[in-house]
Amino acid sequence: MSNRTRLQSGVVEKFRSRPYRLSACTAYPWRSAGLTAQRDLLWENISELPYFRGLLRAVEGRFYQDLPLEAPTLDLGCGDGQFAEITFPRQLELGVDPWLAPLREAIQRQAYQVIAQSYGQRIPAPDNTFASAISNSVLEHIPDVQPVLDDLARVLKPGGIFYFCVPNHNFDPNLSVARFFNRIGLKGLARAYRCWFDHIARHAHLDDPATWQARVEAAGLRVVRHWNYFSPQALAILEWGHYWGLPAWIAKLLFRRWIVAPTPWNFALTRMIVNPAWTEPQPQPDGVCTFFICQKPLP
What we know:
CATH topology of the domain at 1-26 and 68-171 and 206-229 and 282-299: Rossmann fold
Strand content: 15-25%
Strand order of the largest sheet: 3-2-1-4-5-7-6
Helix content: 40-55%
Structural class: alpha/beta
Number of helices: 13
Largest sheet: 7 strands, mixed
Number of strands: 7
CATH class of the domain at 1-26 and 68-171 and 206-229 and 282-299: Alpha Beta
């Protein structure tokens, strides 16, 4: 039996031996308006990540500060665990990801009680296990995403909540370089740039909310609410961050960390650049990303 199989078997036994009860969802005690305001989620993210990625994760992490997250919780596509470690005040019960290298980082961060290397269409847990689940900027990277949503619905308890966010149909049309090429009549070059950017961002889906709602409903869940966020102006900051963030990539290769000197003085200019996107009101009607709140119906 492989190590991966033994790990997955252990996950199943863990959840079989620890039955959780689904109770009324309540917000975390520290999530009052005053305490939320005291947390500098932007700093917590950009001091660890390339600024464009840290900015987006900070915006998304802020949404969770006022949302209930009942245990046990599944993080589908947990990656290195950075988002969960910063965003949530407790360990999540299970983090699942197919890639081993980021899972090793997630183990070091201790953001999860259990970590499993697994594809999303084969979540290593019994039916009706989790009271809540999250998938943060993950589903857009999965070409055949419907089986993943189907299996997530299988492991979610009746009444359980699923939060996820994805870039939407507004993303590609608002890429600033492509818009520039369009303005000067180079439409072919604009199309090529969008294809190239989606390739480096590993985008398999850039769909409108109605398309995602249809997928969610086909899996047996219902969309309770959704909203767009991250304006086209914020997207420009993220887009150019892919290029200005080259020193962070070099630091990651050399020192195994994105940021070598995470000090406030070193980030003064960065904060000036990202602050308009961080402080813009949400939701954004023409936002390039969409946040969904879904629920598995009760019998």
